[in-house]
Amino acid sequence: MNNYIQENKDRFIDELLQLLRIPSVSADPKFKGDVRQAAEFIAEKLREAGADKVELCETAGNPIVYGEKIIDPALPTVLAYGHYDVQPADPYELWHSPPFEPVIKDEKIYARGACDDKGQVYMHIKAFEMMMRQNELACNVKFMIEGEEEIGSNNLGIFVNQNKEKLQADVIVISDTGIIANDIPSITTGLRGMSYVEVEVTGPSRDLHSGLYGGAVANPINILCQMIAALHDENNHITIPGFYDNVEELSSEERAEMAKAPFSLEEYKKALDLGDVHGEAGYTTNERNSIRPTLDVNGIWGGYIGEGAKTVIASKAFAKISMRLVPNQTSEEITEKFTRHFESLAPPSVKVEVRPHHGGEPVVTPTNSVAYQAASRAFEQTFGKKPIPVRSGGSIPIVAMFKAELGIDSVLMGFGLDSDAIHSPNEHYGVFNFLKGIETIPYFFKYLAEMSK
Amino acid sequence: MNNYIQENKDRFIDELLQLLRIPSVSADPKFKGDVRQAAEFIAEKLREAGADKVELCETAGNPIVYGEKIIDPALPTVLAYGHYDVQPADPYELWHSPPFEPVIKDEKIYARGACDDKGQVYMHIKAFEMMMRQNELACNVKFMIEGEEEIGSNNLGIFVNQNKEKLQADVIVISDTGIIANDIPSITTGLRGMSYVEVEVTGPSRDLHSGLYGGAVANPINILCQMIAALHDENNHITIPGFYDNVEELSSEERAEMAKAPFSLEEYKKALDLGDVHGEAGYTTNERNSIRPTLDVNGIWGGYIGEGAKTVIASKAFAKISMRLVPNQTSEEITEKFTRHFESLAPPSVKVEVRPHHGGEPVVTPTNSVAYQAASRAFEQTFGKKPIPVRSGGSIPIVAMFKAELGIDSVLMGFGLDSDAIHSPNEHYGVFNFLKGIETIPYFFKYLAEMSK
Predict the structure, then answer these.
(1) Substitution target from B110, B194, B222 for chain A, most A beta carbons within 10 A
(2) For domain A3-191+362-452, which CATH number applies: 3.30.70.100, 3.40.50.300, 3.40.630.10, 3.40.630.30?
(3) Which residues of A are catalytic?
(4) What CDD domains does the record tag this protein with (chains A, B) (predicted)?
(5) What is the pLDDT of residues A386-408, one digit of tens each?
(6) 3.30.70.360, 3.40.50.880, 3.40.190.10, 3.30.1330.30: CATH of A195-247+293-359
(7) How far is A35 from A87, CA to CA, in rounded Å?
(8) Is B427 considered catalytic here?
(9) Minimal-distance CA residue of chain B relative to A325
(10) ipTM of the predicted structure?
(11) To bridge B302 with a disulfide, which of A147, B5, B52, B317 should be the other Cys (CB 3.0-4.6 Å)?
């Protein structure tokens, strides 16, 4: 760790905690004001660090924070992307400390957004501050920090489309992924896409007494369960017709290469208290959550869910369902195939509605680019080991969108860990990881400038 | 309608509305005080009507209101049973007027409990008042009005067991069922029993990000759906081993007799806005909801159920499941068979817990008894038509319990309609039905006394 980080780390962390105290949940309209406050905080910190032209770019939804520092048009330009919005924090009762009152315990910062993505965004701002103060900024830099990543980045797409000139850059750098372990650095080179839908099954037009009507009318909850169950076969293959049509199948060489990444099935099961893993027949755990498409119910509800018993047949039942997609599948294609199939599963005794939420495209980033090589050298410099390229199961839909709209590849320099519990109660981010990110980013700028000469 | 009812009907209705304003929801602890207030209201009205020994009999849960009027030990004694607790009123947003602010519209009283069972209980209290004021009480009468019917009547069972002497009677009369239509009187002669369980499926020990873990771990919601789906086969038979072992199969003569009850499938579908009915192959709608056992999910929940999208794999998923039982099945047997089967459906990747809520036994009441004949004559007197004996799909578990503990048969003199939306939003009770009950009950007392001589 260099002197600047050593001398300023308490302040860096303190500032991050301030940001984490703002409950910028984009999915829930009641946090609208907090979302804006988080944007303003980011903007202020960019200004303080020395960025020019800092502004909140208004959209139909939450603002996008922009800022830049152009030092020499001849140098490469890095566009740093991140998001200041966070996932909803419920179920609140499972948090050991309140999600928006960050605490540091065992060298980890606990709060919603600690890792995803406020902690990782803030590394970029502090790395930029350090480069500015030490007069070591080696590339031009542009910041674009949005507030709707957790709800689909719809307005970012419009913004990018309308600001192609302003956003021109040589590479986009994103810290919203992770490394294998603190002593096993890695860089994400592939991301899954996503289709996210909400389904509604309607049986009788009103809630009914299950004694008087039970057995004689379609119970929408039972039917919804049957329809969801029918989406997988006994091998856990997804049954939607055409679902796998465009799936990229990896060669046995590629799979053998993947299998070399350090992984212990026993530790994986133990960490999650699993009796067994569960997934598509014919694939390993690491393949199931990275190179294979999936279908998961993210939420389900219907009928009486309070305390005690109520003998009701609900009129309606609901589920939120997401599918993770792999290269060559598209969210539009899959959402359409899902909708057609799900509707076909409904018996005539119920009505079904499928509402698409948002989608994103899968992506594979090049590992032979100058930018990837610069990132790899930066990790090797600070971790003392060459990072392993890995495919992640997560989705960052904007990576494919950036490529399509701007023609720019991204480098996914994330510093989180799988165990950080992002999207879960007790999300956290290691102080080690936060500071390591601040240390690594300037090397990326340095090597990118050198290698681009 | 006689003069007494004519002169007092506005007051009768006004008093019922007062009772309906008390949100005595037994399933939810936050209404504990209201439940007690409803008991006190009932006790006060019994006292005002002329009952002796009125008291709130304390139990481990909600009190049982007792009162009696013994006029002559030589006369038959009627034990009138009912309940002052009500079902939860949610979903509140589907009510056209607030569930605990009763309104009268189109000659119907709209409120939670209007029919089930406050409106029907209150008919007995006002019929008793009328008989007392007019010096026409023809039998001894005991009242036992409980506050836990909607949550399984556990404490009533204990109370009855401990008060066999006090509760001795010749017949128990219960108004918690219905008639076919206002111009087609009927008396319920059979009730289904019930097993009610709550199930919990646990996958990973914490909520997970569906991108990083999706496809590799068991999603408890998907698994719960698969397990629930597996409880019925393609003919909508229940797949629990041994589930039908003891089911009483009706003869074709009995089924032909049942089929004579007036019923229009088209009207049934229209009333509930159903594309089609849905149920066990080989049985009619009226058979499915009365003489056949069923399995319905009454509530399901898990994962993110707020607005927008959250890409989470929940740690746990839950469902409330009830089974309606027919004669010769017992709730203990079925709960055990369900539990064993449900646990066997779980793959090793999840943990399952089945928690029994409450049960009740199915019952068939005799139609050749003096009490049934007296009730039949009373209905004929006030409706101008002999009532049809019908099997109901609902459950009043205490009927079997009364028979077992006290050796007393019940007569199910209910005046509700299937369309009253009990257990649903916009529950209501016809003013016609309320007053018709008050008119009919004294004839039952009269004929019972005459026929018992």
Answers:
(1) B222
(2) 3.40.630.10
(3) 85, 149
(4) M20_dipept_like
(5) 999 888 888 888 898 999 999 99
(6) 3.30.70.360
(7) 12
(8) no
(9) B211
(10) 0.80
(11) B317
